[in-house]
Write a structure and sequence with these properties.
Length: 282
């Protein structure tokens, strides 16, 4: 089935990034959040990203206007009904996501695919709360969504072949590179990446080197575009902590214990770029 309209639940950093790449790829987007202000913030962020692309001559002014015109805000979940593909990008919390997904399933047409952009909640567990779990799948984008090429496509135990095929096809249509993976804590990329970031925080906590030198070491020594501490600030320290907590709980292995400094930073509200202060000031 050709997808013409994508419904996105959550207009935050990830949801608005996904909305942007869908609209630029020529898809209609219905962007849902709990209130008008959240939707307006999301759309303003998209407009400013597209503006930057126009200034860099990566997008024409006409294409920018057309992309923005394809995005429609929606406060009521019922307004998502015309979407052939729905992507939930709300808070990283099992109960909240289950509630949203159940609401979405109630209004979605029977042949639409429902995906979640979760980075840490089990696809199999989320699927359990749905009636038609075969059409439910993980579609995990990376931050910043318009820049990062990867999409992890995650099948839970119940996910059907059709949902997998349609999700891989959509990712390609968005000009992303999808990888198909099975459900497990952190899937594939975060399972490798986030413990590395946590280890960098341990190194800082132990006073072995400054934040700048740890990051420079990893940048110059392993060709990463930004160091692990700067990346933690980009991802959000609360998200890094919650992923480590999932690993620690679900694998039951002490190698996944979150660094105390990470917990302290989160308790202090120093969550990285989004609060203008993390390991660095913004
Ligand atoms: N939205 C859209 N475009 C953005 C952007 C954003 N938020 N931030 C940067 N860009 C674009 C810039 O416009 C610029 O575009 P051009 O090349 O066309 O000029 C390009 O990205 C590079 O940006 P800058 O020159 O400003 O800065 P930079 O070279 O330091 O790049 C970066 C910024 C792309 C974020 C780069 O530092 C990088 O790739 N970092 C690693 C990001 C990463 O690993 N992300 C994955 C996080 S893990 C995750 O997301 C999974 C999870 O579940 C936690």
């Amino acid at each position: 089935m050709e997808i013409k309209t994508v419904g996105i639940i959550g207009a935050g950093q990830m949801g608005s990034g996904i909305a942007q790449v869908c609209a630029v790829a020529g898809l209609n987007v219905i962007l849902n959040d709990v209130n008008e202000a959240a939707i307006a913030r999301g759309i303003a962020g998209i407009a400013s990203n597209l503006e930057r692309m126009v200034a860099k001559q990566k997008l024409s002014a006409d294409d920018r206007d057309a992309a923005l015109a394809r995005i429609r805000g929606a406060v009521q979940v019922e307004e998502l009904a015309p979407a052939g593909f729905l992507i939930e990008a709300a808070t990283e919390n099992l109960e909240i996501k289950q509630k949203i997904l159940q609401g979405v399933e109630r209004i979605a047409s029977r042949d639409s695919i429902i995906a979640t952009n979760t980075s840490s909640v089990s696809i199999t567990k989320l699927a359990k709360s749905l009636e038609h779990a075969d059409r439910f799948i993980g579609m995990h984008f990376f931050n910043p969504v318009p820049v990062m090429g990867l999409v992890e496509v995650i099948s839970g135990v119940q996910t059907g072949e059709q949902a997998l095929a349609e999700t891989l096809a959509l990712a390609k249509r968005l000009d992303k590179t999808p990888i198909a993976v099975k459900n497990a804590p952190g899937f594939v990329v975060n399972r490798i990446l986030v413990p590395m970031i946590n280890e960098a925080i341990f190194v800082l906590q132990e006073g072995l080197a400054s934040a700048e030198d740890i990051d420079n070491g990893m940048k110059q020594g392993t060709n990463q575009p930004i160091g692990p501490l700067a990346l933690a600030d980009l991802i959000g320290l609360d998200t890094v902590l919650s992923i480590m907590e999932v690993f620690y709980r679900d694998f039951g292995d002490t190698k996944y214990r979150p660094a105390q400094l990470l917990k302290e930073m989160v308790d202090a509200g120093r969550l990285g770029r989004k609060t203008k202060r993390g390991f660095y000031q913004y």
